[in-house]
Write a structure and sequence with these properties.
260 residues, mainly alpha, 2 domains, 73% helix, elongated
């Protein structure tokens, strides 16, 4: 039975499954539940691989991939691709659960740091800066802001998902090593700096506008850039930096520091 399964799956070409796995990975959390968390979504992503199996193999496949699973949804495709590779090579029964356990926690922490602690707040703050600048100068409409936010967030988001599936299918669980190096840490720092600078830009616009207080605006933005660097080094989430900027902006506007 095992030999036949290995021959059957080894005949599959990873490239043929890449887009199916990639598209299905977007529904990883569609049926999130407190018991298995992302278990249903993970099985749904892997389900196309079961089409070539007989009934007994499908039952075993269901047992393997309906167990507890939880990680960052943006980096989950690295695991999906690696497990799919193991299944295609007939090693799913031995390695699938091991791969999920080994990478789930690691990629969960890495993805949370990059996406939730860095990129998502940075995208929102950059969009806020675009909206406020557009309102004050009339260069563009407010509708530009949500477009900018979606682009800033989703370009890296989609890139990481596509790369995760491709690399997982290509080299297996070793693909995740690229998310644990210096380059990835620099990416996290960059998103936090960007968020802090955007927070300073929003605060400066709210407090001084675009027609006056040029030096004061530059000082405020510079201060937030330094704050972002310090926060990144201390691993302080940029959401806290943004909150500090929001509170500062409110205080300045309430106190009449806008020049009115």
């Amino acid at each position: 039975m095992h030999d036949g399964t290995e021959r059957k799956h080894s005949s599959m070409r990873p490239g043929g499954w890449k887009w199916r796995l990639f598209l299905r990975s977007f529904l990883l959390q569609a049926v999130w539940n407190p018991r298995g968390m992302q278990d249903v979504g993970f099985f749904f992503a892997m389900a196309p691989l079961a089409r070539t199996m007989d009934d007994e193999e499908r039952r075993e496949f269901l047992k393997r991939h309906m167990g507890f699973f939880n990680t960052n949804p943006v980096l989950a495709p690295y695991i999906i691709g690696a497990v799919a590779r193991a299944e295609m090579e007939g090693r799913g029964a031995e390695e699938a659960e091991e791969i999920k356990k080994a990478l789930g926690g690691v990629l969960g922490m890495a993805g949370d740091a990059l996406m939730w602690g860095g990129l998502r707040p940075a995208a929102g703050l950059i969009a806020a800066a675009v909206a406020l600048y557009g309102l004050q100068t009339g260069i563009w409409g407010v509708w530009t802001a949500p477009v900018v936010m979606l682009v800033v967030y989703n370009v890296p988001h989609i890139f990481l998902k596509a790369r995760g599936v491709a690399r997982g299918l290509s080299v297996g669980p070793e693909a995740a090593s690229e998310l644990l190096g210096r380059g990835f840490r620099r990416a996290v720092l960059a998103t936090r700096w960007a968020g802090a600078f955007a927070a300073g830009f929003v605060l400066a616009l709210a407090a001084f506008g675009t027609e006056s207080g040029g030096l004061a605006s530059a000082v405020v933005m510079g201060a937030f850039l330094v704050l972002g660097a310090v926060a990144a080094r201390l691993r302080i989430p940029s959401t806290l930096v943004a909150a500090a900027g929001a509170v500062g902006g409110i205080i300045l506007m309430v106190s009449g520091f806008h020049g009115g």
